[in-house]
């Protein structure tokens, strides 16, 4: 398994990217990591003698404020574009970047391309629940498509369900539609029409509408939503958790000696809570629905999340979820064309 | 000032509604509360000799699972419908219910009616920030309209801005559009078109797009959004806060003696944090854009939130925000008709 890595993407590139790659390369000897970027700068953080890390040198890179489409089309020698091209040419099996999100989505779509039968790939993230039995859930789309049609939502449901089965090992994942009420007739026109399609989708275990209030309780294993709402929900979860932790910290610091001692005694609890909320340990966002895994992690990612993301990509590759999805959609297309011919 | 109260609405009616009304009636002698509902049941919780509480008896009530439109049209003697009719007939100045939300929205629209010039009223809530300087913000719409047009969003901006000025006493409230990025060109077609309208709106202090991640930090005083997204963001905030508090509790309970002592020492901090997050102290959701204040509070509200909601309604009535808005839209309509005639 070969993973193409944009070593120049993100706020902490190439240092944290290279260091995360080193951690992963040492642990997983069944993968080879190819670092695209400035060889001199990469080598500064790369110890000698790691057999499963390669470097492909390039001077060019895509910046965070570059226009995504223009950058991907014009900067042919950018580290991200070269990494995506390697995947297209089957020289690598997946691509990972912490750089410009829009550019990575564009590179995924234009260079690597969609699985035949998927109209729009979506961004899938894995989030924790506070319910240990369920552990985690997938939400999709969290921002690739600000505008969605019911058929996109239905494809997200199938894609998310495949991910939960293959990569997360859930045998019969519960797929829920994010809506403003649990009753069948709730929602806007998009969720109402999506509800009808999801109900008829034979490939998923559709459990109906789920509300945003219940997601962290484990209301569903796969939460289907459009990219605008999903983005708002993801950012609200992050913002609320961060605000609460900072509020708690301020409260502890301002509550005198008693509070400070209390804070010290609870330090382990608070740290384990913070860790539980840190969803970067599940890896990055997967642009899912493409011919190969395309993974984006936070621009501010340090080596630990970079390592976790590479671990996640290895899991995805080992699970064979993308070839299986491709086969599924090809078979479906054949059935449909047979159906039309008859 | 007379407030019509649906004494039979909500999970804890009439007990908590009546007890909350009693608290408010005792504190605010400049208001009269009219309780609509079963006289016998109401009297069971009503001490003798409270001069500013009246009862209007009726046997009928709208249940939580009633179809909103049918219930409002057919149950003419329901406590909620009679309370709304009193407002329509100027026998009362505002209405409050903890009952069926859809029915209250319907009663507001059909019985009390819109301010001329407002196409769709929206549901406005007041939420806390963790930033003491800003204190609170208003978000609108959080669920009255699952489908919105740009002109609805623009009206929410004006309405919310009026509320922040008149009721919350902010001199120049910062109005932000909830979007999936802060740059001007971000969003779906609704937010892009809304951005253009808000930029041209002379009656507001538009500060551009705000992200869901930053709301609790006080990113804006008024957050404008469609009812579907607003509902998802509100419920995500609630769900994340509740999940975190329950996670912290579990962590403390499971962390042995050290953790328990720490928890005890931090009790005040944790309680003050919980109180800060409890936004029922700001009252209920205002269906704003109607000819009179229509206020909905949580179905599970106890007497304290009921009291707070009545306090809020008194603030709204004293602020004269609704007559002022009505005058503003009437004047605007005249200007526009003059403009068309010329």
Q: Would you give an account of this structure?
A:
- Two copies of one chain form a homodimer.
- By secondary structure, chain A is α/β, with parallel strands linked by helices.
- In chain A, 48% of the residues lie in helices and 15% in strands.
- The first copy, chain A, is built from twelve helices and eleven strands.
- The first copy, chain A, has helices at 15-27, 39-43, 68-74, 79-88, 101-112, 150-166, 189-200, 227-254, 256-265, 267-277, 303-319, 321-341, and strands at 2-6, 32-37, 53-57, 94-97, 122-128, 136-140, 174-178, 205-210, 222-224, 285-288, 294-296.
- The first copy, chain A, has an eleven-stranded mixed beta sheet, with helices on both faces.
- In chain A, strand 10 (285-288) and strand 11 form a beta hairpin.
- The longest helix of chain A has 28 residues, at 227-254.
- The radius of gyration of chain A is 21 Å and the shape is globular.
- The model of chain A has no long low-confidence stretch (mean pLDDT 93).
- At the A-B interface, helix 8, helix 9 and helix 10 of A face helix 8, helix 9 and helix 10 of B.
Briefly, what is this?
Chain A has about 350 residues and is α/β, with parallel strands linked by helices.
Describe the protein's topology.
Two copies of one chain form a homodimer.
Chain A lengths: L1 E5 L8 H13 L4 E6 L1 H5 L9 E5 L10 H7 L4 H10 L5 E4 L3 H12 L9 E7 L7 E5 L9 H17 L7 E5 L10 H12 L4 E6 L11 E3 L2 H28 L1 H10 L1 H11 L7 E4 L5 E3 L6 H17 L1 H21 L1
Parallel strand pairs in A: 1-2, 1-4, 2-3, 4-11, 6-9, 7-8, 7-9
Antiparallel strand pairs in A: 5-6, 5-10, 10-11
């Amino acid at each position: 398994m070969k993973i193409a890595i944009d070593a120049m993407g993100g706020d902490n590139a190439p240092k944290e990217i290279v260091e995360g790659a080193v951690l992963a390369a040492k642990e997983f000897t069944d993968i080879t990591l190819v670092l695209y970027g400035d060889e001199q700068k990469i080598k500064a953080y790369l110890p000698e003698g790691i057999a499963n890390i390669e470097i492909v040198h390039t001077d060019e890179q895509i910046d965070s404020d570059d226009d995504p489409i223009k950058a991907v089309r014009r900067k042919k020698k950018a580290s991200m574009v070269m990494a995506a091209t390697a995947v297209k040419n089957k020289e690598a099996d997946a691509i990972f970047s912490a750089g410009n999100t829009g550019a990575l989505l564009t590179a995924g779509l234009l260079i690597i391309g969609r699985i035949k039968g998927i109209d729009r790939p979506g961004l899938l993230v894995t989030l924790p629940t506070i319910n240990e039995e369920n552990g985690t859930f997938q939400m999709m789309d969290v921002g690739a498509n600000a505008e969605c049609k019911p058929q996109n939502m239905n494809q997200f449901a199938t894609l998310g369900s495949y991910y939960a089965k293959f990569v997360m090992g859930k045998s019969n994942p519960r797929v829920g539609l994010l809506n403003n009420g649990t009753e069948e007739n709730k929602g806007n026109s998009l969720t109402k029409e999506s509800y009808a399609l999801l109900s008829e989708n034979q490939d998923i275990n559709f459990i109906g509408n789920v509300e945003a209030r219940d997601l962290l309780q484990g209301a569903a294993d796969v939460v289907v939503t459009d990219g605008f709402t999903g983005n708002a929900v993801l950012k609200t979860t992050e913002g609320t958790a961060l605000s609460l932790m900072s509020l708690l910290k301020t409260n502890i610091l301002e509550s005198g000696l008693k509070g400070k001692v209390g804070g010290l005694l609870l330090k382990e609890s608070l740290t384990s809570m913070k860790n539980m909320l840190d969803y970067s340990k599940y890896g990055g966002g997967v642009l899912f629905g493409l011919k190969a895994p395309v993974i984006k992690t936070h621009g501010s990612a340090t080596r630990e999340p970079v390592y976790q993301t590479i671990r996640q990509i290895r899991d995805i590759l080992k699970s064979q979820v993308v070839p299986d999805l491709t086969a599924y959609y090809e078979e479906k297309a054949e059935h449909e064309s047979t159906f039309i011919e008859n």
